[in-house]
TrEMBL record:
PANTHER family noted in UniProt: PROTEIN, PUTATIVE (DUF239)-RELATED (PTHR31589:SF110), PROTEIN, PUTATIVE (DUF239)-RELATED-RELATED (PTHR31589)
Origin: domain of life: Eukaryota
Record domain Neprosin PEP catalytic: where: 1-113
Protein name (database record): Neprosin PEP catalytic domain-containing protein
Length: 114
């Protein structure tokens, strides 16, 4: 995809969410094994390996405080939750204005002890 075709996703206006504030913010994905008990792949199906065209990723993550100033997450504020079928990797501020705070995630799925 060309950079002039990129679309921002993930903005939820206050009137849609209808809350006064949140104590936590999260980014993520999940899968549902359904009746088969086998988890589908997530993202591209590859576990993260620091290569942008292998695993799925979020980039330039920010959140807004009451002052409506974009905030970059601090490493010390983060927790990760990962199912055995998937992985998350390289959760950090990249130092690049294009990539910003980013992380890789995904995996092949399969039977994961559901």
């Amino acid at each position: 995809m060309l950079s002039n075709q990129l679309k921002f996703v993930g903005y939820w206006p206050k009137d849609l969410v209808d809350i006064d504030g949140a104590s936590n913010v999260g980014w993520g994905a999940f899968t549902n094994p359904g009746t088969t008990g086998v988890n589908p792949s997530m993202g591209s199906g590859h576990k993260p390996d620091h290569v942008y065209n292998h695993a799925a990723y979020f980039r330039d993550m920010k959140y807004l405080k009451k002052e409506l100033e974009p905030q970059i997450p601090a490493d010390t504020e983060l927790e990760t939750f990962v199912d055995p079928c998937y992985a998350i990797d390289d959760l950090h501020y990249s130092g690049s204005p294009y990539w910003g705070y980013d992380f890789f995630f995904g995996g092949p799925g399969g039977s994961c002890g559901n």
